[in-house]
Each structure stands twice: as structure tokens, then as C-alpha cells.
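Deliverable D5.2: sample structural annotation.
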Amino acid sequence: MRQITLALLAALGLTGCGGPQAAQVAADSAARDIALPIADSTLALNDAASPEPSRVDTVFIERPGRAPAPASASKPVVRTQSSRPAAGPVPPPAPAAAGAPPPAPAPEPAAPEPTPVPRGPARLEAGTAIEATAAKALNSRSNKAGESFSATIGSAVTAEDGRVVIPAGATVTFTIVAIGPATNTAATDGTIELRATGIVVNGESRALDAQVTFVEHTLKGQGVGASEVAKVGVGAAAGAILGKVIGGKTGTVVGAAAGAAAGTAVAVKSADRDVVVAVGARIKLVLKSALVAGS
């Protein structure tokens, strides 16, 4: 009621100051019920916070046949947390059963084959021994110094790596340096000396620098020859002269016989024995310098 009275007073004041229009406004205000409702304090208040709205994820599905969006308008990728549990540590392998054989080790990789190294020509070093056999016979009675002689290689001669340098059947050539008989029975040997001059391999002749170290040979008696008969005659004549001086005619005969016997003994003792190298006799050589195959 008090509020209504105040409203009327205000309207009258405005009427007096503002004229008819103001009076009309004041009348309209007075006619309104501007009373505020009285708050009801008996109602229970609910001060609980309103629940947050639930989260909604929006998934965009591209329609078939629709052109892809430009790169500038790319949509954000929605990442969701996987529900799979994280992988734990790997458990150790189960122990092998008692008495079980251990697993076989893995085979080692094969080693690569070495690259072959090119080899030079095969060669025989100095000091290599070579053996040949005489291709023809030698005799100190018929052969002389300066003549040629040949021998044949019986077994192939190989280098240290097994390659053949001198094949079997190759021919070694020699020069007779000296040859002579044993001059009496007291002499233990005659004279035979050869010098290697070359070797022929597959029809090709090569130089050979080698020292002959051994020549297989024998001594063969020549018998009583013309010179030895002269020695017997001289002995008989000397005995006859000696017998005549001692005992006349009978002494001459006895002396001649004794002198002949003495001369024969001298002839036999001084008879020569020839040096003979038979076909197939062994001849040994040693290289003085290296011999290269094909050189």
C-alpha cells in the first residue's frame, strides 16, 4: 500500500512539471501493479552442481565417390586409447629336459675360395740332381776326347710345385773331355770325363749348365797285343845271351827259355785295361744354375 501511495505522489509531481503528457505517463505507471512477489523461504534450496555433459566423439565417414578434401582442410585425427594391455617382459625359455642332447651348433659359413695366383714358368733350382742312362756304348780303345755322346732321361724331373721341367725321354748331350784305359794292374781305374752341353726336350734344344758327378763304367783287359809280344821277345833274347855266357850251347837254350818266361810276366803285368761304358749305364748330373721350363 505504501508503494502505491509513493507512485501516485510521483505521478502528481510529474503532472505538475510536465503537463498533460507527463500526467498521462504517470497515470499509466500508477495503474500498473508493480508489487514484487514475496520470496517463499519455506522451499528447500538445491545447491548441487549441474552434471557436466557427456563427451561425444564425432567420427567423419567419407562418402563413396566424394573427392578428397584439400590438404589445407584436413580434419584432425581422433586418437583413442587402446584397450589392449601393455606387453610384459618375455618369459625365459623353458629349461631342457634332463638327459636331452644339447642342440647342434649352427654350421659355420664356408670360407670363400682363394683367388688363384698366376704362376710363372716352372723351374729347377741350382743343385737339383738329374740322372740319365747312356744311349750308346763308350770304350777307351775306340772313342777319343772331343767326340759327342748322349744319354736319356728315364724319369721326369719336376719343380717344387710338381710341374714337370724335364720330361722322361729327354736327351742330354755330352762332350768327351778325356777317356783312357788303366795302364797296368796296379791302376785301380782308367780315365773317363764328360761335360754336359745341352738337353733336347720335345725336339727343342736348350742349354744345360750341369756338372757330371758320376759315370758308371767297367775295366776290360785288352790281352797281350803287339807291344806286349815285343816285350816277350826282348826277354827271350836277353836270356839267351846270358845263358851262352854262363854255360855254352846248353846254357843258351836254358837262358832263352828263362828270359822268355820273364818277358811274358812283364807283358801281362803291363797289359792295359780299357774303360767301358755300356748302354744303359747310369750318368748323374747336378745343375750349376737354374733351369727354367721353356727357356
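Annotation notes: The CA atoms of residues 1 and 37 lie 14 Å apart. DSSP finds two helices and 14 strands in the chain.
The annotation will be released with the project's public dataset once the embargo ends.
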